[in-house]
Amino acid sequence: MTRAKPIPDTVTVHVPFRLVKRGGRREMLLPEGASAQRRPDDALVKALARAFRWKRMLDSGEFATIAELAAREGIAAPYLTRVLRLAQLAPDLVESILDGRQPRGLTLESLREALPEGWAEQRRALIAICKSVYLG
């Protein structure tokens, strides 16, 4: 029995992906439509927890100002303000982040930018941000 074509010594497999930095570590970003086991982004979850904790501390009157809270936490007030914005995210966005179902490309850095107050506008803005990660 003879083969019509010889078997090659090596086989090359092309797997399209990009490496992105998230929370100080590198992750593979697969192309849209590719399925992969998702897990919560630790940096996003930690930032959300801090935002809601700080909001509760300010709302309860434990601290009168952001500057006072920042001094107590040992961080810069502008950083606290940027993270505190996460407490204003739409509930379904918060839930998707906690479940690891956030849109691919959604990072802590992208959430630190000013987002619209309206939840529908937030969703549109975040979709645009995530699309720019794929196109960029």
Strand-helix topology:
Layout: E1 18-22, E2 25-29, H1 42-59, H2 66-73, H3 77-84, H4 91-99, H5 108-112, H6 119-135
Antiparallel strand pairs: 1-2
Walk me through what this model shows.
The chain is mainly alpha-helical and 136 residues long. It has one domain. It has six helices and two strands; from the N terminus they run E-E-H-H-H-H-H-H. It has helices at residues 42-59, 66-73, 77-84, 91-99, 108-112, 119-135; strands spanning 18-22, 25-29. A two-stranded antiparallel sheet has the order 1-2.
Order of helices and strands: EEHHHHHH
Mean pLDDT: 83
Helix content: 40-55%
Low-confidence stretches: none
Strand order within the widest sheet?
1-2
The biggest sheet, with number of strands, parallel, antiparallel or mixed sense and barrel status, is: 2 strands, antiparallel
Number of structurally distinct domains: 1
Number of strands: 2
